[in-house]
Amino acid sequence: MNDAGAAPVHFIFLRHLQAVGVFACGACGAAGGGWPRVTIAKREGAPVELFAGAVRLSRHAAREVSAQAPAFARGEAFLRFIPEPAEGWDGGLHLTWHGREGAVETRFAAETGHPAELSRILALAPAEAVLRIAGAAIAASRREGEAWESLPRPLERFLRLVHKGLSTGGGQVDTVLRVGDAGMLIAGKLDTDEPLAEAALFALSGRRVALAVPLPATDSTPAGRGFAVFAETGERRADERRWFLELAPVGGDKRRL
What we know:
Elements: E1 9-17, E2 21-28, E3 39-40, E4 48-49, E5 55-56, H1 59-66, E6 76-83, E7 93-99, E8 102-108, H2 117-124, H3 127-141, H4 153-164, E9 171-179, E10 183-190, E11 196-203, E12 208-211, E13 225-231, E14 243-249, E15 255-256
Antiparallel strand pairs: 1-2, 2-6, 3-4, 3-7, 5-6, 7-8, 9-10, 10-13, 11-12, 11-14, 14-15
Helix pairs in contact: 3-4
């Protein structure tokens, strides 16, 4: 915990996942909707902004986060991901901000929250933000020119957690067949006859493969309208094991299978 009195930020969850990065979730007590200027001291180079790239969580999420921090019940809930190698991380975050009496520096030393709580926090964050975090974690973990045969175990576990929480309904994928380095044959069912404006296959690394719409149809059953499509993904890296099918109905919200 911090030792500087009234800090402008309260961490509910602060944890370092080796080979992935640091996850900081909490509430910011600043009024007016703007983030205060809080910097993270780096061991080398210039400090970085704590809230640079931070994800604002919804009011519902704020209530969930602030349940453990009543003093910040009216603050802004946030999620900040700091990719590996984490700036200023040696078991804690060294923060600096300006208070009434000038600059204040403190070290949030202790990790808070149980590692299992990360899945709940990711569920509270917007899906697009979680996808950006996954992509950033992969990019930061990959050394230039390195060819992974398998992912570092902590990164593998984190990506599995992200992938598991991405489904938003709209159907199901029943079969995925890998066709060498050419691509994948994907078959499943859609639970609606809504026309699609777009369809694409996404890897957690951020790679996107557009698919022609409408998706080729197969036999329909009471469980849904069948489809089967071949996605030309080409050669895939170790960090492209996990994919999802994103569907954008005409005039509707995106769905992920």
